[in-house]
UniProtKB/TrEMBL annotation:
Superkingdom of origin organism: Eukaryota
InterPro entries, per database record: Di-copper_centre_dom_sf, Tyrosinase/Hemocyanin, Tyrosinase_Cu-bd
Source lineage: Eukaryota, Metazoa, Chordata, Craniata, Vertebrata
Parts forming coiled coils: none
Organism: Cynoglossus semilaevis (Tongue sole)
Requisite cofactors: Cu(2+)
PROSITE patterns: TYROSINASE_1
Name of the protein in its database record: Tyrosinase
C-alpha cells in the first residue's frame, strides 16, 4: 500500500506535453518562436491557465551523459528532444494532460479530471463476438479517418528554414499516425550525403526505454481511439497465446487469414487485405535523405512461419517467460542489445531466455514473433503497419504472473504450427503484461532505472521521442494500476471470473436486450395463455368428476332400498 501511494504521488508530479506535432503548433509562427502552448478551447486561455489546468513554461532537458553508442552531436532533430522544434510547452497541473492541458492524464476522467478509473484489458478470445467486431471496425475507422489533433513532419528542422518559413507537415490518419511515430523514433540518423547514415541509434528500442516508451505509445493510441469513436470504455485487447495449439486470432473475423491466392498477402475476405502500408522503404529514404511522408507503399504483407530458421529457431514458451520474469536486474552492463542477464534485453529478444546471455544474430522472445511474421511486421521501422503489432505490444505490459506490455501475449508456447498469423497489435499488448508481472514480482525502486550512460534517448530524464505532450522515461517505470489499467488475467480469481465469463455474457445481453425483452414478453403471453387453458381444463374436469359421482349415487340408492324391503341380507347386515 505504501509503495502504491508513493507511486501515485510520484505520478502526480509527472509533467506532460505531446510531439507527434500538435496541429496548432505546426506553423511558421510555432517554429519561429519555438513555442507550443496552444489555447485551450474550454476557456480561451493558453494551456487552460484561466481554469488552473496548466501554464506555458520552458522545457528543461536532462544533462546526464549518454552512452558511447552514438558519438555525434547536433546531427539529429531527436537529440535533446524536443528542443530542435520547441523550447516552451504546456505544463499541466494536477491530473490534467494533453498538449493544451485540455485532456486528463492516463487513468483519470471527468470534467475536472478528478475521477480515477481503472480499465481492464481483456483476452480477445473471451470477448463477445460483437466486441471482437467492434475492435476490428475501430481499427479500420482509425485507418480511414484523418487525425484532427496531430500532423507529421515530412522534413527535417533544417529543411523548414531558420525562422520556420517553410513548414513541412502533413495530415495523416489516426492509425498511420502511430505507424509514423514508430518509424520516426527508430529511423537512422542522416549524416550528410546519399546513404550516409548512422544506424546504431534508436530512441525506443535496444535499451532501457523499450518498455516505458511502448507503454506510453499504447496508452496514447488507446486514448486516440476513444476520442475518435466516443467509446471511452474502449481498451485494446490482448491475446494470451500460452500453450496454444493453433493461431486462434488468424481468422477473417479478427486479424485475417492467409490469402489462398498469395501466401504473402491477407485473405480478401478480411478488411485488412485492403490496407496500404507506409514507412517501409527505409533504404530508399536514407539514399534520398528524406523522411517518410506517409505515402501508401503497397499491401500489408504477412507470411508467418516461412522465416529464416537460423535467426529464429523457435518461438517462446511458458518456460521462457518464467525465466525472463525471474531475472532480478532490469539493465546491466552497457545497457544495449549486447547486455547479459538483463530482464529488458531478454524480453526484447536480444538475449537467450534460457541462460540470459546475449545472442548476436538471433532473435528471441519479443523479436522472435516479428521475424516469425515474415512480412511488414519484420522490419522495426514499419512493423506497426500490421495490426497484430498492438495486441503483441499490449502483452509486454502485464508481467506479474505472466508476460506484460500491446501495444498487450507472449506467454504462449509458440511453434511455426501454433501461430501462423498472429496480429502484431494483440501480440504487443500481451508482451507488455509481462513487464507488469516483472514489476509486481520484484517491486523495483525508481533508482533501478538507469539515470545516466544509457544509449541516447534512454536515460531516466530523457523525454520520449516524438511525443508532445512530453513524457519522461523514468516516470513510466511503474505499475500499470497507477496509469489506470489492468489485465484481466492478473485480477484475483473472483474479479477474473467476472471479467472473463460474466461480463462478456452481460455485454452480449446488452447488445440484444431488445430481443430479450421481446422474447420475455412473448414468453409471458404464451405462459399466461397456457396457464389459462390449464385452469379452464382443470375446472371442466372437476365438474365432470362431480357429475359422474352424482349420477353414480343415484343408481345405487334403489338397490339399497330394494334390499331393505326384501329383509335382512349379508350386505345390509355388514
Amino acid at each position: 500500500m505504501r509503495t502504491r501511494f508513493a507511486s501515485l504521488v510520484l505520478f502526480q508530479l509527472v509533467q506532460t506535453a505531446f510531439c507527434q506535432f500538435p496541429r496548432p503548433c505546426a506553423t511558421s509562427e510555432g517554429l519561429r518562436t519555438k513555442e507550443c502552448c496552444p489555447v485551450w478551447g474550454g476557456d480561451g486561455s493558453v494551456c487552460g491557465a484561466l481554469s488552473g489546468r496548466g501554464f506555458c513554461t520552458e522545457v528543461l532537458v536532462s544533462d546526464e551523459p549518454d552512452g558511447p553508442q552514438y558519438p555525434h552531436s547536433g546531427m539529429d532533430d531527436r537529440e535533446r528532444w524536443p528542443l530542435a522544434f520547441f523550447n516552451r510547452t504546456c505544463r499541466c497541473a494536477g491530473n490534467y494532460g494533453g498538449f493544451d492541458c485540455g485532456e486528463c492524464r492516463f487513468g483519470y476522467s471527468g470534467s475536472n479530471c478528478a475521477q480515477y478509473r481503472e480499465s481492464v484489458r481483456r483476452n480477445i478470445m473471451s470477448l463477445p463476438t460483437a466486441e471482437q467486431r467492434k475492435f476490428v471496425s475501430y481499427l479500420n475507422l482509425a485507418k480511414n479517418t484523418v487525425n484532427r489533433d496531430y500532423v507529421i513532419a515530412t522534413g527535417t528542422r533544417a529543411e523548414m528554414g531558420g525562422n520556420g518559413e517553410n513548414p513541412m507537415f502533413s495530415d495523416i490518419n489516426t492509425y498511420d499516425l502511430f505507424v509514423w511515430m514508430h518509424y520516426y523514433v527508430s529511423r537512422d540518423t542522416f549524416l550528410g550525403g546519399p546513404g550516409n547514415v548512422w544506424r546504431d541509434i534508436d530512441f525506443a528500442h535496444e535499451s532501457a526505454a523499450f518498455l516505458p516508451w511502448h507503454r506510453v505509445y499504447l496508452l496514447h493510441w488507446e486514448n486516440e481511439i476513444r476520442k475518435l469513436t466516443g467509446d471511452f470504455n474502449f481498451t485494446i485487447p490482448y491475446w494470451d497465446w500460452r500453450d496454444a495449439q493453433s493461431c486462434q486470432v488468424c481468422t477473417d473475423a479478427l486479424m485475417g487469414e492467409r490469402s489462398p491466392l498469395n501466401p504473402n498477402l491477407i485473405s480478401p475476405a478480411s478488411v485488412f487485405s485492403s490496407w496500404k502500408v507506409i514507412c517501409t522503404h527505409h533504404t530508399e529514404y536514407n539514399n534520398r535523405e528524406v523522411l517518410c511522408n506517409a505515402t501508401g507503399e503497397g499491401p500489408l504483407l504477412r507470411n508467418p512461419g516461412n522465416h529464416d530458421p537460423n535467426r529464429v529457431a523457435r518461438l517462446p514458451t511458458s518456460a521462457d517467460v518464467d525465466f525472463t520474469v525471474g531475472l532480478p536486474d532490469y539493465e546491466t552492463g552497457p545497457m544495449d542489445r549486447f547486455t547479459n542477464m538483463s530482464f529488458r534485453n531478454v524480453l526484447e529478444g536480444f538475449a537467450s531466455p534460457v541462460n540470459g546471455m546475449a545472442v548476436p544474430g538471433q532473435s528471441t522472445m519479443h523479436n522472435a514473433l516479428h521475424v516469425f511474421m515474415n512480412g511488414s511486421m519484420s522490419s522495426v521501422q514499419g512493423s506497426a503497419n500490421d495490426p497484430i503489432f498492438l495486441v503483441h505490444q499490449s502483452s509486454l505490459s502485464f508481467s506479474a504472473g505472466s508476460f506484460t506490455y500491446c501495444h498487450l501475449l507472449y506467454s504462449l508456447t509458440f511453434s511455426p504450427v501454433h501461430c501462423t498469423c498472429c496480429p502484431y497489435l494483440k501480440y504487443l499488448f500481451y508482451f507488455y503484461s509481462i513487464f507488469e508481472r516483472w514489476l509486481r514480482t520484484h517491486q523495483p525502486v525508481r533508482s533501478t532505472y538507469p539515470r545516466a550512460n544509457a544509449p541516447i534517448g534512454h536515460n531516466d530524464g530523457y523525454y520520449m521521442v516524438p511525443f508532445l505532450p512530453l513524457y519522461r522515461n523514468g516516470d513510466y517505470f511503474l505499475t500499470n494500476k497507477v496509469l489506470g489499467y489492468e489485465y484481466a488475467y492478473l485480477l484475483d480469481p473472483g474479479q477474473r471470473f467476472m471479467q472473463e465469463f460474466i461480463t462478456p455474457y452481460l455485454e452480449e445481453a446488452q447488445q440484444i436486450w431488445q430481443w430479450l425483452l421481446g422474447a420475455g414478453l412473448l414468453g409471458a403471453v404464451v405462459a399466461s395463455v397456457f396457464a389459462t387453458l390449464v385452469v379452464v381444463a382443470r375446472r371442466k374436469w372437476k365438474r365432470n368428476q362431480r357429475r359422474k359421482r352424482s349420477l353414480g349415487y343415484g343408481e345405487r340408492q334403489p338397490l339399497l332400498q330394494s334390499s331393505s324391503e326384501e329383509g335382512s341380507s349379508y350386505q345390509t347386515t355388514l
